[in-house]
Specification:
heterodimer; A: two-stranded antiparallel sheet; 77% helix; globular; B: mainly alpha; elongated; Heme exporter protein C (chain A); Cyt_c_assembly (chain A); cell inner membrane (chain A); transmembrane helix (chain A); Cyt_c_biogenesis_CcmC (chain A)
Amino acid sequence: MHGFANPRRFLGLAKRLTPILLVVGLLASTGAIVWGLVMVPPDRLMGETVRIIFIHVPTAWLGMAGWMTIAGSSLALLVWRHPLAALAARAAAIPGAVFTAICLATGSIWGRPTWGTWWVWDGRLTSMLILLFLYLAYIALSQAVDREGASSRLPAIFGLVGAVNIPIINRSVVWWNSLHQPPSITTGGSSIDGVFLWPMLIAMLGFTCLFAATVLMNMRALLAQAQAEARLRRRAMEAEPA
Amino acid sequence: MSAFAILLRRDLAILLPGGARGSAFLPLIFFLLVAVLFPFAVGPEPSLLARTGGGVLWVAALLASILPLDRLVAADRDAGVFDQLRLRGISEEVAMTARLIAHWLSFGPLILIATLPASALLSLSGPTFWRLLASLLAGTPGLAAIGLMIAALLASLRGGTALAGLMLAPLAVPLVIFGAGHLARVDMSGALFAGAFSLVLCAIAPFAAAAAIRAARD
């Protein structure tokens, strides 16, 4: 992993990987959404509204995967002082928050006809909402750290504390109240019919590639910004009268 | 006297009412103010207040615990206290453990005492008052632990304390759920869960806060 501590090697890989991920992601997610919206039959109970799962489920997964990225990068930064880990955590925060917000919005739209209400204080909805607030707190903290040039290990500590707490938060709100259907896909198998399952899995793959491409592009932009600032400083120093 | 005891005595002298930081009564007054404001907002009907008052006091306790955070760690960090301790071989973890105990003692017991007048203002019944007291006793150490971590994370940022509420509230959600959930139950499970989560937080907090102080050094 430390092979990529050198930004140049990382940039070389990222430059080649970004277009691949972007193209695969766009093709897979558009394909899966078209498949899901046009070709899949309406569900026996939920009717046409079932089609929102092709967006809802992948965004829910990425909302959680985003924080796992933050937690993993934070650990790499705190334990191994990996220089790119701080960038990865920062680059994953905003996409993760956006996916969490999309997940909440689509769930709310789906809940209106199905449960008869825009919002219920159900365990899983509530834990996604709290996750969104954790993202916002993390983003605000890392922006404040950036602005004042403080240590990038500060948001990393918050990221790890959040990762330790997320399972407890999740369990506590589920214990509190639950209306959401139980998990449909477990390691034991799937209770979703194949006709819905396949487009959903492909949509998850596509959205994940898009997420990875966004994170890589974000990291490249952050690196480029740092390089531009360093170059400006160097040239200003050269221009100083001796 | 051991170094830990000396540290604890110093922290208590600073943080307790009448101490150098002089903000110990702030959370208490704020807590009571929420208990006064709530009936103005929803109306003084005793049955409504009795049903919702306990939860409101839990939220008030959470919000009150944000108030002392801006001076909890930052002032000592700016004065170089933790650097001095490090030079004398006292780790940040030890300093933060003492600070955690002193922080809880400076606002937890006061809020527990204030629960009595606040319960009267919100027409809580006798049994509800005792359940509220038990759940706050179990939950406020957790609030203190989250607060300490956040105060240490924000200590090196000038405009940082505005973030304290945003960072504290999501992490404190389980405490509110278990603590306020305890009020509507017949067994002790709510307070026990709140206490368990408090213990987890108190175990993490000194290490996370110490790591934050070390991170802010470079």
